[in-house]
Amino acid sequence: MISEEMANRINVQINREMYSANFYLALAAQAETMSLRGMAAWFFAKHGEELTHAMKMYRYLIDQDTAVRVSEIAAPEAVEESVIAMFEQTLAHEREVTVFIHDLVDLAHSEKDHATSIFLQWFVTEQIEEEATVNDIIGRLRLFGDQGQSLMLIDNELAGVAKQIGQAASAATA
Ligand code: OFO
Description:
The chain has 174 residues and is mostly helical. The protein is built from five helices and no strands. The chain starts with a helix and ends with a helix. Hydroxy diiron-OXO moiety (OFO) is lined by residues 17, 20, 50, 53, 94, 97, 126-127, 130.
C-alpha cells in the first residue's frame, strides 16, 4: 500500500502522461500537414509510448490496491510550425516531465517508500533517453539543415526509428 499523497501524485502523473500522448499526437498531425511522413510516424510512435507510460502507472496503482482516478486531460499547447521549433518544443516538454518524475522520486524517498522508488527508476532512465534522443535530432537538424535533402534524409531516418519503436512496443505488450 502506498500513501494517499503518493497515490494522488501518481494519479496526476497518469494524467500528465495522457497529456503527453495528446501533445505528440498534435505534433504528428502537424508533421502530416507538412508532408513529413517520417516525422509524423515518429511523433505518432511517441504518442503510443506515452500511453504505455500512463498504463504502467495505472497498473502500479492497481497492484498497490490503490484507486486510479481518470480525469479530464487538458488540450495540448499549440504546436510550433517549423521543424526545429517542433523538436525544441518537444525537448522543453520532456524536460518538464523529467522534473515531475524527479519530484515523485523525491517524495518516494522522503516517505521511505522503497517500492515506488524502484518503480520510478524506469521512468528516470526513460526520461534520460527521451531527452537525449530529441537533443540528438535537434543537433542533426541544426548541423545538416532543416530543409531540402537533409530534411528528407532525417525524415526518412525517423520513419525507420518509428518502426523500431512500434516493434519494441508490440514486443513489450506481447
Ligand atoms: Fe512519459 O515519457 Fe516522456 O513524456
